[in-house]
Backbone:
């Protein structure tokens, strides 16, 4: 049997889908056959369509849900389970790797039942599947089942491991495998960064950036408030990248605070690295963050992050060394931290260098991929006993 895996994830710009795609691509580079299954092609996969190293080893299978008037909500989980089972059977794939516990792991368990029980299911917890959505009374029991029926469970940070232990009756092993970035994509040498800087922050203006999917948990309007406080003291511009439910509210917030001329809203883009490299600092005032992949991507491009001291962020950012960690509700302290760094350029430069080294020194991709390979192997052994 060939080394092969089915990757089930969200196809969007959200962190779990990005990590799932990067992992799948890295596995394909190691010779694995990788089958991505989701509602639409994973966005990050577009970076690799003409990559000769993975050619012929990566395929995408779309989940099609039919619209029947008698269903108020289309049962995506069933269509997903069905697609996973079809792909696993047709290509004889022994492992299903579900990123995000619901509905992906549940669909994987269903598919395994349909296939006769021999297929291994690996679950990677990413964050809100445990810390927010999973805690909802309508989902808590099914997340508990998702965990207990998995052959292996991993979490992207120690924080998330502990949150899982605290909140769910699950005694099985949880491997912590931190997220990683692709070094050939996220690095400091981004020639377009100078053009972006010239466009948004000419003549020595400071340039800040916020990247998110604008869910409430990201507190994008707070990023805008921090910027307004900074802008009151120094010439500065803010690039807000992404889209999502809170974007209109954030645009209103910029208007209300009188800084809309100095804030540029930019839709999610695969061309993110030059924007990250162009910025002096990233703002991440999240209410909850199990890891903070966007912070790691910014750091890899040499941009330190001023962030909330919550969740998994202290595992990613060393306060005062490669970024700043502050209480999430202390907008004033965050603005002061930004201003202090902007006013001390040599300190900011040292932080930027430390930030650029961190992702590849502390979270090297190869090391994380090796850990996932071990998890796959243990999950296979467990199922075959
Ligand atoms: O948006 C997503 O795709 C997943 C999202 C979430 O809410 O679960 O992000 C989580 O997974 C990322 C990748 O592992 C982490 O970097 C984010 O910190 C985490 N988000 C939260 O915990 C809020």
Residues:
């Amino acid at each position: 049997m060939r080394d092969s895996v089915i990757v089930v994830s969200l196809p969007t710009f959200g962190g779990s889908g990005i990590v799932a795609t990067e992992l799948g691509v890295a596995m394909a580079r190691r010779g694995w056959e990788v089958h991505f299954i989701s509602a639409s092609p994973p966005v990050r996969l577009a970076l690799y369509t003409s990559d000769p190293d993975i050619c012929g080893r990566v395929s995408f299978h779309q989940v099609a849900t039919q619209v029947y008037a008698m269903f108020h909500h289309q049962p995506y989980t069933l269509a997903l389970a069905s697609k996973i089972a079809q792909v696993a059977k047709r290509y004889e794939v022994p492992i299903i790797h579900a990123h995000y516990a619901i509905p992906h792991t549940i669909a994987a368990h269903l598919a395994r039942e349909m296939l006769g029980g021999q297929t291994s299911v690996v679950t990677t917890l990413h964050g809100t599947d445990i810390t927010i959505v999973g805690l909802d009374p309508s989902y808590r029991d099914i997340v508990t089942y998702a965990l207990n029926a998995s052959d292996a469970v991993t979490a992207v940070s120690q924080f998330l491991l502990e949150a899982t232990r605290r909140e769910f009756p699950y005694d099985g092993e949880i491997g912590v495998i931190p997220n990683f970035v692709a070094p050939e994509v996220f690095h400091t040498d981004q020639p377009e960064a100078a053009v972006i800087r010239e466009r948004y922050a000419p003549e020595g203006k400071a340039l800040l950036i916020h990247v998110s999917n604008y869910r409430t948990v990201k507190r994008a309007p707070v990023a805008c408030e921090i910027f307004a406080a900074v802008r009151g003291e120094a010439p500065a511009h803010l690039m807000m990248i992404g889209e999502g439910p809170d974007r209109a509210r954030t645009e209103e917030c910029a208007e209300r605070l009188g800084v809309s001329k100095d804030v540029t809203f930019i839709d999610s883009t695969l061309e993110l690295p030059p924007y990250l490299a162009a910025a002096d600092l990233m703002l991440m005032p999240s209410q909850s963050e199990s890891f903070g992949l966007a912070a790691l991507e910014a750091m890899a491009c040499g941009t330190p992050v001023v962030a909330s001291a919550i969740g998994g962020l202290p595992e990613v950012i060393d306060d005062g060394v490669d970024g700043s960690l502050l209480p999430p509700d202390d907008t004033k302290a965050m603005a002061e931290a930004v201003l202090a760094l902007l006013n001390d350029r040599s300190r900011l430069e040292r932080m930027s260098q430390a930030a650029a080294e961190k992702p590849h020194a502390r979270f090297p991709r190869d090391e994380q991929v090796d850990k996932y390979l071990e998890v796959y192997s243990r999950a296979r052994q467990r199922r075959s006993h």
User: Anything to note?
Assistant: The pocket of GMT is lined by residues 10, 14-17, 19, 126-129, 131, 156, 179, 213, 217, 288-293 (CB under 6 Å). Residues 193 and 275 are 6 Å apart (CA to CA). DSSP finds 15 helices and 13 strands in the chain. Residues 192-362 form a domain with the Rossmann fold fold (CATH 3.40.50.2000).
